[in-house]
From TrEMBL:
Localization per Swiss-Prot or TrEMBL: Endomembrane system
Keywords: Disulfide bond, Glycoprotein, Lipid metabolism, Lipid transport, Membrane, Signal, Transmembrane, Transmembrane helix, Transport
Record's bilayer topology term: Multi-pass membrane protein
Entry protein name: SSD domain-containing protein
Similarity annotation: Belongs to the patched family.
Pfam families: NPC1_MLD, NPC1_N, Sterol-sensing
PROSITE patterns registered for this protein in UniProt: SSD (PS50156)
Location of region: Disordered: 321-340
Record-linked PANTHER family: NPC INTRACELLULAR CHOLESTEROL TRANSPORTER 1 (PTHR45727)
Chain ranges passing through the membrane: 296-315, 354-374, 411-429, 631-649, 669-691, 703-723, 771-797, 851-875, 1132-1160, 1172-1192, 1204-1227, 1239-1266
Amino acid sequence: MAPPRSSEFRLLVAVFLFLFLFQVMFLPSLIAADRSNARLLATSNGTIGGRHSEEYCAMYDICGAREDGKVLNCPYGSPSVKPDDLLSQKIQSLCPTITGNVCCTERQFDTLRSQVQQAIPFLVGCPACLRNFLNLFCELTCSPHQSLFINVTAVSKVKNNLTVDGIDFFIADAFGEGLYDSCKDVKFGTMNTRALDFIGAGAHNFEEWYAFIGRRAPQNTPGSPYAIGVRSTTPDSSGMRPMNVTTFSCADTSLGCSCGDCPLSNGCTNAAPPTEHEGGSCSVKIGSLKAKCVDFALTILYVVSLSTFLGWGFIHRKRERNQTSRMRPSSNGMDGSDIHPVATQKAENHPVQIWLCWQIYFSKFGYVILSYYYQAPDASPNGRRVQLSIVQGYLAKFYRIYGTWVARNPVLVLIVSVAAVLLLCLGLIRFKVETRPEKLWVGPGSKAAEEKRFFDSHLQPFYRIEQLIIATVPDSREGKAPSILTENNIKLLFDMQKKVDGIRSNYSGAIVSLTDICLKPLGEDCATQSILQHYTSADNCRSAFKAPLEPSTALGGFSGNNYSEASAFIITYPVNNVVEKEGNETERAVAWEKAFIDLAKNELLPMAQSQSLTLSFSSESSIEEELKRESTADAITIVISYLVMFAYISLTLGDTPRLSTFYVSSKVLLGLTGVVLVMLSVLGSVGFFSAIGVKSTLIIMEVIPFLVLAVGVDNMCILVHAVKRQPLELPIEGRVSNALVEVGPSITLASLSEVLAFAVGSFIPMPACRVFSMFAALAVLLDFLLQVTAFVALIVFDFLRAEDRRVDCFPCLKISSPNTDSDKGTSLGIGGVRRPGLLARYMKEVHAPILGIWVVKIVVIAIFAAITVASIALATRVEPGLEQQIVLPRDSYLQGYFKNVSEYLRIGPPLYFVVKNYNYSSESNQTNQLCSISQCDSNSLLNEIARESLRPESSHIAKPAASWLDDFLVWVSPEAFGCCRKFTNATYCPPDDQPPCCSSGSGSCGLGGLCKDCTTCFRHADLNNDRPSTMQFKEKLPWFLSALPSADCAKGGHGAYTGSVELQGYENGVIQASSFRTYHTPLNKQRDFVDSLRAAREFSSRVSKSLKMEIFPYSVFYMFFEQYLDIWRTALINLAIAIGIIMLVLAMIVIDLLGVMAILDIQLNAVSVVNLVMSVGIAVEFCVHITHAFTVSIGDREQRVKEALGTMGASVFSGITLTKLVGVIVLCFSRTEVFVVYYFQMYLALVLLGFLHGLVFLPVVLSIFGPPSRCKLVEKQEDRPSVSLRP
């Protein structure tokens, strides 16, 4: 490997960390050199085995230098030397333990000073650690008793001069333990990690630290020019003794460290230790069985309730039998022998009676008990009347008049209704689609969205991320992925990087490359997060991006700090972001991202596969682009679903197929026009909202047509079947009028319930779901209006066509048949009414009698109650969230990317704690309330963050925060003499290894030259308790933020903190916005994201109250997950509103649907909440028609249930259940997981649950608990309003 120039290592920190990552690939000495920025040059005048006594030196003066300029000490012993006063003062300033004579020359001391200044910025935040560290090297270099613990073990000849090539350094274990204990928890703020990770190779004890320090540095790498062997035991009879200078504890009051750097520091021990949040839930243990408290309580409730019900049922049944045996059947007509429902055939010679019926209508809003009289269809003007609810009475009166009018004026109704909807469709001219994720999934009043806007406008928008993940394939036998750190894989990575660097995209005629758009914190090179950032080729090592690199951001698939086990390369290309998402800068980045994805698909993926590696990739715009593609991914599936439903509609609307009359009796044209009306209702809804400026979403165009069709088909079938049930001798207007009176009220209230359920969804804060609910509510309303207007008119046309024997689909063709009367007669029953179909006869003659058996009733109620109780228990296991993989097509390249992110990333998203209005003036104590170095408050923000990082399982904070404030205070401190410096004219003087102090083309940088007169900014006397004054803070902060980090001062703030502090308006002593960066722990599940947001907000709220400062957390994903913090509350509130006064069957359907969600692992999010709210409206359809038929029937409960199932059971099964089932099943073939999970699975469960509850459970409940017959014999009252059911 060719030796790099010294100018390529100006930021030693980056090199140290990089070489540490590759300790298994390169020479240990190379690693030691790169990682150590504190290794010193030792001197000696002694020979091997020379004199060892007090006031005697083992090495003295400098006798040569290596090829890279590192000086080498003389291996000659000599008595210690008394320094002159100036040198003595210099030595005392750095090494206060050394007094009197010394064993170093001024040149040796200057070398020592220049070397340790590289380590000082890492440790200065903890004075005790820094003092112990300096004492180690001061004793090594200048101690007057050097020969007592230093023994030269190897020499080499440089230009005919002997120089030291190796020494033994004898150090007492007590000193080593004290040194390590005082430094082991000291943080390096810029990288959110321990300082020992940089200056000690992550040592876990003092022996490992010594071993790291003692390695000889290769040419052109920082570190010791000779080997240092650290020993704790001296040779016998050598006269030597280990160095054992007194060490300072980090808890020492005179050299106090902060709580973050020293948990034992004064004041920290009294602080409450971090307590783990209770992660478990209440549980009950019975023997070996352990159950949640909720499950146990529900089980007890079920057993008690079922026992009570069985007891009541036994007593009630016994009493009922006794009453039956004592009483004879009533002669008032209530036994059902002469009782007929309103819609049944007309009976002959009925006595003139008046029936008073208290109508209790089963609706979304509870029970309406107002009454209204109307005359029974078989009554003469002086005959009987049936009293209905006032709502149903008015609806019946309206539909009687309206049905007759529509049947007589079908053309006018059809033209007017269709024209009105077409007028709404004109709004499609302003149709726009919203595809930006932040506009779809984040509400305008979102707290997280407001915090993001504040962060973006005051600090710096979070950068765009383009990422590659290259991983090895797990071994089929062992199941463990091999290490990716091989020479071939690194060369492959170089080849891939060249291709990425060569991407050129075109935007508005301009060529865009990565260097044009990438993030450049230091203003020169892209901040590419890759292990290759220190290379220009496979044969040359240098730092291209001069900044430290966190290993977990470049490598993946390892455990702990075992980077050599890494099984994945993670390459991240940060790209500049802007606040305005639609600006030219964003468009340029998007153009490059598209070229990047194309390159990854077409070239990089085959390259990785050729080396038996996997490659996953993503760009910032990938999700948005894939969501757009999703809109066309399932077009065929949706079209097939519509065609299947259309075919079923055509079949179910027609009569029983007979070959001779099929072409006349079929309803294909009617079904087709019904589907067209559904489409018009959807287009009218979209047109209306587009006209008022509401943007549509892709899901609206995909789901709402299907949803409205599924809802609309039910009413079509019910209307057509109701018309078919009317006597054929009635004219068409009479049949239509009677049919509307029969089913119109239930259709109206069912449709209004669905509209209300969808409208409730518009209160959900998520824009995509809110807009979806608004569009759906209006579409369902328009569909209902078109059904009772245009579709009724079309029914009139179709029945007239059939009666005139015209061919379906070709009404101009008329067929004559001699068997018309016979065909007609075979389909008629008694009284000219069409004979009930097979399904209707099954419902009335088989299904209803079975459900009427008392034992069956008990079993049905017990089973459905058990399902409901189990569903309540399961509902508590439904987790919030919406997996990103679900909303993407199954064949999307992002599916593999999200899987690999979860598998390989060992660090979570960046987390920023943003402080508003930080008062840095001398009069305020807020500086100490925020910082975490010496003399900061023990409960400061940064110390609290450090404590939270000690319990990452509950806090989800991975490490202490990078603090610009800590680094700034260190940067201005006198101890960091290589950092804050000034020229004689009081202007900023950079470190000695930066221009203009050091020319980039020079071979080395000495202490002379342009910056030889630079002095530190402050002395201790200039500061107030080591804190700058208001004026000093205001003057030096811009210096710090513009200072480049380098080997001489790694604390420079440029790049690391450029976007962390807002300088606008800071001159008045208040910084409006500043941030402190840390990281979340790896977040793999949706619950992890939600819990991390909740924990961060709870922590910020607690600290804000404690410090009386405004602090909030910010991470780029927060605004997308904020909705899940209160998703259960949102769901329950919306469900309560939708259900209204909770009704048993609807509540059970929704609860059971929640239980199904838990079984199928369907998460609770805005999409599922909308589905749950919609399920209330849809479930009404399964219940309202049966209930309505029950309420208008006459007889006891058993007879009325039988009559309700006979008249409406078939329509509910064929017109509601099967139509929805047919359309839903097709969705299981969708290529998009969100359709399969949230539409196929949830809707299928809803249809099956609705069917079972509506046709099994509801009839049983009505037969037991339904209201008694509300009809009684009364005298006719002429003054009451009457509504004739006759045409």
